[in-house]
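LOG
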Amino acid sequence: MDISSISNSIGSLSLNTNNKIAQTDDKSFQNMLNNAISDVNNQQVKGYDSMQGIATGKVTNLQEAVQRIEEADLSMRLALEVKNKALNAYKEIMRIQV
């Protein structure tokens, strides 16, 4: 039974995964966090613009405006939950005795 074709396939797979890992290492945690915060901020701005549009009557599609407001609310809630989980994890790590 010839397994050379299988080992060649596995060898090419391991090379591809190494390249993928090297590509993902380019982004630091700080950059990912900054991007996430920027996304939340952009959604908040869109939500506030939609609220202002509803209040002034400039909105033509009320459903879209309400959807933007809800998306902004959900993104802020998600960001707060992620922050809370990170703080709880940090506190748990600090309680560990060395």
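LOG (cont.) second protein
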Amino acid sequence: MLDHGGAISKASLKYNIPVSEWLDLSTGINLNGYPVNNIPPKAWLKLPDNDNELNQAAKFYYDTEFLLSCNGSQSIIQLLPRLRNLSKVGIISPSYNEHEYAWRKQKHQIEYIDPDNIIQSACDNDILVICNPNNPSGKFYQVEELIKCRDILASKNGWLIIDEAFIDTNKDHSLSSLTDKSGLIVLRSVGKFFGLAGARVGFVIAEPKLLTLIQNELGPWCVTGPSQYIVTKALLDTKWQNENILGLKQRSLRLKKILRSSQLNISGSTNFFHWLVSDKAYLIQAILAQQAIWVRLFDNPPSVRIGIPALESEWERLQAALKKINQL
């Protein structure tokens, strides 16, 4: 399996620091996640309903009639390459590496594309996979540009796959409401904005014919009853959503100021993380890890991704740790 953020148990062993003492800023997950209250017993006692309140709530939240709930968007990332004959697949690098891994595993031809010329990439490939915003660079793509890519790909029976895992605070960039057209597949997750990564719930949004094919491959009961209950509440709670969009934007700006004051250059940003390209990336991660703060390290290019703290005590810890980096 590929390395991702998290894996605090490994960091704990490497640095000999108990798991309970770590501040995990490596995943980009909103640490002020949706509150999980008492789950009714019936959520545990019966098989989950496929045509359920969760899907209705998701259709409202994502502004579409065409979606399927699934066991995290990761399950769809792994499935989609199995639904195509061998194809040329354009992928941005660096990006969420599970996409490339899944397509390469099924022997598709991978081409690294120019992130600033995706329209040409749509002409050159059968499939285009784009994270919007990109992870870790934070680059956003405009709806009009993406629609042009979809038109080109659909004309040759291709796909534009948009992974919108980090888009919830910038909904005006989302294509989720446009997936009634062929050739467009949008992946959404409640793991980042809602902080419900452990619920393992995602959604694939696409034209009905493709959704039927995906549903037949997934089979029944993809999402547990307890997860359905929690995520339904989260998707309908507009008050919580609006408060957290504002809160994440404010905390992201606060972290940006702190990083700049520590003489660290920010290469890309979202409201969930900041990305720092640096030839000292390995040293930056190590210095923070020695103080039980875990950030995501990337090899190519050498860089770190730093998530957004939640509690005031966490901000104080991070600021103190960054002072040591400032002394490099």
